[in-house]
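Changelog-adjacent note: as of this version, every example in the card shows the full chain rather than a window. The one below runs 82 residues end to end.
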Amino acid sequence: MELAVELVALLSTVGIAAFTVVKVARLFAPRRESASTDVTARLEALERDVQSLQHEQAETQERLDFAERLLSKVREERRLGS
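Full-length structure tokens:
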């Protein structure tokens, strides 16, 4: 019986010591950044690309609107001239 008590005491002591060491190591471990610099740079590049595409799409829409107005004007002139 004495051996069992000693074994439980030893395991408890080692367990508590290991738990404490792990907790302290986690406290002093360097924190990971929210995003690496590579991921941040890629995200910024994607944002620039999206902004560029949005600008190009807006210009294309303006040109389409202009072409539609011209076609509408020509059709109206033909209708009135005939």
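Structural remarks: The CA atoms of residues 35 and 48 lie 18 Å apart.
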